[in-house]
Amino acid sequence: MMDYFNKKHMPELVLSALFVIYLVIGYQVPDGVATMIDSTLGKIIVLLVALMLFAYSNPVLGVLALLVAYQLIKGASIKTGMAGLEEYYPTEAKKWSPFTPTHQFPYTLEQEIVKNMTTQKFNTEYVKAPFRPILEDTYDASPLTA
Questions:
Q1: Per residue in 70-118, pLDDT tens?
Q2: Which residues neighbour 125 within 8 Å (Cβ) at sequence distance 6 or greater?
Q3: Of the four, 10, 111, 125, 146, which is 20 to 30 A from 134 by CA?
Q4: Alpha carbon distances (Å) from 93 to 74, 101, 110
Q5: What is the pTM for the complete model shown?
Q6: Domain residue limits, the chain
Q7: Residue 103's pLDDT is what?
Q8: Closest C-alpha among 74, 28, 70 to residue 50
Q9: pLDDT for 30-68, tens place per residue?
Q10: How far apart are CA 133 and CA 80, in angstroms?
Q11: How far apart are the first and last CA of the chain?
């Protein structure tokens, strides 16, 4: 255990302490850094650095690096607003999902009546009316031609 406190392992101890402080305090990422980290390339770089620390240094430092990388990516996504968009923006899968409550309607009375109306036979024979409409006084207007 005392082997980790010599000069050779001091940078790892300092980095571990910084990681613990970052995780405990919950420091927010600045806007410029958040924009860079929230891109695809930024996420890949952050994950690669964390995985390299995990592979080539103390395992405790590697686990802390993975936790800090997750927190950085999550914090950057919240800072730029992409987390809200990903959660609430409707995707095609969300819109057309058959299991959403908006697509589950009961069979309504209107649907039943329309179904019954389309199967009925209607009388299409017209009866000649026994009266003829009379045009009122047109007050010198031009006559209608029929």
A1: 999 998 888 888 877 777 777 777 777 666 666 666 778 888 888 777 6
A2: none
A3: 125
A4: 23, 14, 30
A5: 0.57
A6: 27-116
A7: 60
A8: 70
A9: 888 888 998 899 999 999 999 999 898 888 889 999 999
A10: 74
A11: 112
- Average pLDDT of span 26-30: 85
Residue 107 in tokens: 């069979």
Cα separation of 98 and 87, whole Å?
A: 19
- List all residues 6 or more positions away from 70 whose beta carbon is below 8 Å from its beta carbon: none
Q: Which residue has the tokens 């430092």?
A: 61
What tokens does 24 get? 């405990």
Burial of 73 (0-12, 13-18, 19+ CB in 10 A): buried
Residue 17 amino acid letter: A
How many residues are recorded in the chain? 146
